[in-house]
Design a protein that fits this description.
8-stranded mixed β-barrel, Beta-Lactamase, Rossmann fold, alpha/beta, 29 helices, 785 residues, 31 strands, 6-stranded mixed beta sheet
């Protein structure tokens, strides 16, 4: 341990030697000097001054020490005679700390030295604490202060003085009424009293008007207690939170201007803040929200889900989106909730921000769009897309039955009555189907086509019964009038795992077969029907390039007078393709008519027949008529007349050598237009024959309506003569009626002499049949001349 340095200034050094020796043997090092200059530059802790050196010299020594050493660094004790006691006051005033009256003992001096050093050490510690406290106080980034029990300031820091605009001298001993502007003084005193009375800290926010204007502070006040636990005042710190509050205000303004609810919660789900939209959406005051949990707002059944999703966001540490239904004062709403974790500076999740977007209207619109996407706009029943969705879901049923319903001649209904009427017919059919097929899937495939799906059905008869009921009553009632129409129905059965399109194809095949058989019927799909359909498709495909492949050939069957005089030929189509050699010609012609191939094929046949007519009439003594069968489909072609005329011109044929054979079917559609075209053909000199009279829709009314030249009796009547007399009677009536109208008769299919003889007696004009000749190739026909 370092010894304390003590110096003695005296002009009587001998008297202090003994003292010096005593002190040097203890914890001190004592040095005797004659004047102050000998000690001023030494390390000194305590100075003893023998005032016998003189008054002036003593004053000088005291001042010298005080000027050259820090306050409290060196203690000064005077050794003074009673005769000089009158100067003691002046010595103390200039800096002396203590004194001893001469004479004194070593023990007395020792006690005084110890006490002085202890006092100096205590002062040093006190000053150090004061320095440290001031350093702490002034380096605190907040306003800080001490007050006494009367709320007068004892000490404040630099930040306090800066905000108040006053110095420590101005502030010390004054209260808040003096320090701050405005009426803050009373409130500050109230908080001080609360702190002292309750003996605990209080925290509050306060707006204070100071040198920097209006500033908002977060203030902490606490009581100050003495050594006996008595309150002697208060201590306080105030943090300037103006910028923070401004940021909070801006953030709140930003949040409040968001068009959707936003809120902040801690990791336990406790609400910390929310915007205006949030409180309005859930009809809750912001003060009621803060500190509350989701139970305050959400349904109990959803609260657990909220906590679960919060935990998921915290665990994954990334934004997440959830779709939920929540209960509000407007009812149950569909919402999307976007949750984002909030991190502290240590990258730990400390909360979650949530944003809610109400998608109720969007979901309802999507639902409506989805419904519309699966609903037929006209009938409000399901559509084709809904069918596929339905079939995809119904995979747990072992059997599926389908019924395909199609309105017969719907195009004609539209053409005749207009599309609005056609729509009413479609609606009428859909209502009829809905009534009969309750709780059974029903859809409109498009146009005039409907489909009914029966699930888990084992017996096709159940579907057939429904089909009969549907066919039994099909009409539209409008303006107190019933408009009848018919339906054709196709039925098919299949496993649910069968391709939907495959089942649709089956019912389509069956439905079209029902139409072929006269319409207003239902048909059940069979493999034979599909084979028949496939054959037609194959024929249609291969007929498309039959002319290019030179597979189309014309045969000519002669027509004779009853006395076997050649009168003309009927040009007959033949398709020389081994693949279809067993298919009846009439079946091939049906395919051509149904596919419109008949138009181009018909013009080709007309062209070839005209060439033949030109050839055979070159060497004929009498005019030979070459007749060509014309389909109603050809006649309805918009280019029919212009193309026929072009062919005549191209081939150079004599027009009156050409005949056209038509059937009554030309009067089933576009009656007036078709009759006009036939008249034009006749006016050109073409022979017009009514073919197959006596079959189908045959009526004497057609003979009157059409501009005919000849009537051809169907072979069925010729064959019937051998079986029943009624055929002979009817045939005789037809011949007599035609002759009365100056129309010659051609009997088709004459194969026996007996038939010929009967026909002669009935005055038939011309004979065509195997009795005279089978159809001939062109070369053989030309040789008949």
């Amino acid at each position: 341990m370092n010894k304390k340095q003590i110096s003695i200034i005296s002009n009587n050094t001998k008297s202090f030697f003994k003292i010096a020796n005593e002190f040097n043997n203890k914890d001190y090092k004592l040095m005797i000097c004659e004047n102050i200059n000998n000690v001023i530059n030494t390390d000194l802790d305590l100075l003893l001054i023998d005032t016998n050196i003189g008054y002036e010299e003593s004053i000088y020594a005291i001042k010298k020490i005080r000027n050259n050493f820090l306050e409290g660094q060196v203690g000064i004790i005077l050794c003074i005679d009673k005769t000089n006691i009158e100067n003691l006051k002046e010595y103390i005033e200039v800096g002396a700390d203590d004194y001893l009256l001469n004479p004194f003992t070593i023990e007395e001096l020792y006690i005084r030295v110890i006490n002085q050093i202890r006092l100096m050490n205590a002062e040093k510690k006190s000053k150090m604490k004061d320095i440290q406290f001031n350093a702490l106080l002034n380096n605190t980034p907040y306003m800080a202060w001490f007050k006494d029990k009367d709320s007068n300031y004892i000490k404040v820091n630099n930040d306090f003085m800066e905000h108040s605009g006053k110095t420590m001298e101005q502030i010390k001993g004054r209260g808040d009424h003096y320090v701050w502007d405005g009426n803050i003084g009373d409130r500050c005193r109230e908080y001080d009293l609360e702190v002292m009375n309750k003996r605990k800290q209080v925290v509050f926010d306060e707006v204070i008007i100071g040198k920097k204007g209006y500033r908002q502070f977060n203030i902490h006040k606490a009581p100050v207690l003495d050594g006996v636990d008595e309150v002697i005042g208060t201590i306080g710190v105030a943090r300037d939170i103006t910028e923070l509050k401004n940021k909070d205000a801006k953030l709140q303004m930003l949040m409040d201007n968001l068009p959707f609810p936003v809120w902040l919660s801690d990791t336990k789900g406790v609400y910390l803040n929310g915007n205006k939209q949030f409180t309005q959406y859930f009809d809750i005051n912001i003060d009621e929200l803060i500190g509350q949990t989701p139970k305050r707002i959400f349904l109990e059944s959803y609260v657990k889900e909220i906590y679960k999703k919060n935990e998921e966001v915290i665990k994954r540490r990334e934004p997440m989106k959830f779709e939920e239904s929540v209960k509000t004062h407007k009812g149950i709403r569909a919402v999307e909730i976007y949750k984002t974790p909030v991190f502290d500076i240590g990258n730990e999740v400390i909360g979650i921000t949530s944003a809610l977007v109400d998608v109720t209207e969007i979901k309802e619109a999507e639902k409506e769009i989805k419904k519309q996407a699966l609903t037929d706009a006209l009938t409000q029943i399901s559509n084709r897309r809904a069918l596929y969705n339905y079939m995809e879901k119904e995979t747990n049923y072992s059997k599926i039955g389908m019924m395909f319903v199609d309105i017969d001649n719907f195009k004609d209904i539209n053409d005749c009555y207009g599309h609005h009427f056609g729509d009413e017919v479609i609606i009428s059919v859909s209502n009829r189907l809905r009534e009969i097929c309750k709780d059974i899937f029903l859809c409109r495939l498009g146009g005039d086509e409907f489909l009914v799906v029966f699930k888990n059905i084992e017996n096709v008869n159940i579907i057939c019964d429904k089909a009969k009921e549907i066919l039994g009553k099909a009409y539209l009632q409008k303006n107190n009038k019933n408009y009848d129409f018919s339906l054709s129905i196709g039925i098919a059965m299949g496993d649910c795992i069968v391709d939907v399109d495959r089942l649709l194809m089956k019912v389509d095949i069956a439905m079209y077969k029902a139409k072929e058989l006269g319409k207003n019927k239902f048909m059940i799909y069979t493999k034979e029907l599909e084979d028949e359909r496939n054959l037609k498709l194959s024929i249609e495909k291969d007929l498309g390039n039959a002319i290019e492949k030179n597979e189309v050939k014309l045969f000519y069957q002669p027509q004779y007078t009853v006395d076997k005089k050649l009168k003309g030929f009927e040009a007959l189509f033949r398709w020389q393709n081994d693949k279809y050699k067993n298919v009846p010609v009439i079946k091939i012609i049906e395919v051509m008519e149904n596919s419109n191939l008949i138009i181009d094929m018909g013009y080709y046949i007309m062209r070839e027949a005209c060439k033949f007519a030109e050839k055979i009439n070159k060497n004929a003594k009498e005019k030979i008529i070459v007749s060509v069968n014309i389909s109603p489909v050809q006649i309805m072609d918009k280019d029919f007349m212009s193309t026929i005329k072009s062919i005549f011109k191209e081939t150079g044929v004599c027009i009156d050598c050409i005949g056209v054979e038509i059937t009554e079917t030309v009067l089933l559609k576009n009656i007036e237009e078709n009759i006009e075209k036939i008249k034009e053909l006749k006016d050109m000199g073409i022979i017009i024959s009514l073919d197959d009279f006596g079959t189908g829709y045959s009526s004497f009314n057609y003979i009157v309506k059409l501009p005919l030249s000849i009537i051809k009796i169907d072979r069925s009547f010729i064959n019937g003569m051998d079986l029943q007399d009624e055929y002979t009677k009817i045939l005789r009536l037809i011949i007599e009626s035609a002759h009365s109208l100056n129309l010659p008769i051609v009997a088709e299919g004459v194969e026996t002499e007996e038939q010929l003889e009967k026909l002669k007696h009935m005055n038939v004009d011309y004979i065509q049949g195997y009795l005279f000749s089978k159809p001939l190739e062109e070369e053989a026909a030309l040789k008949l001349l």
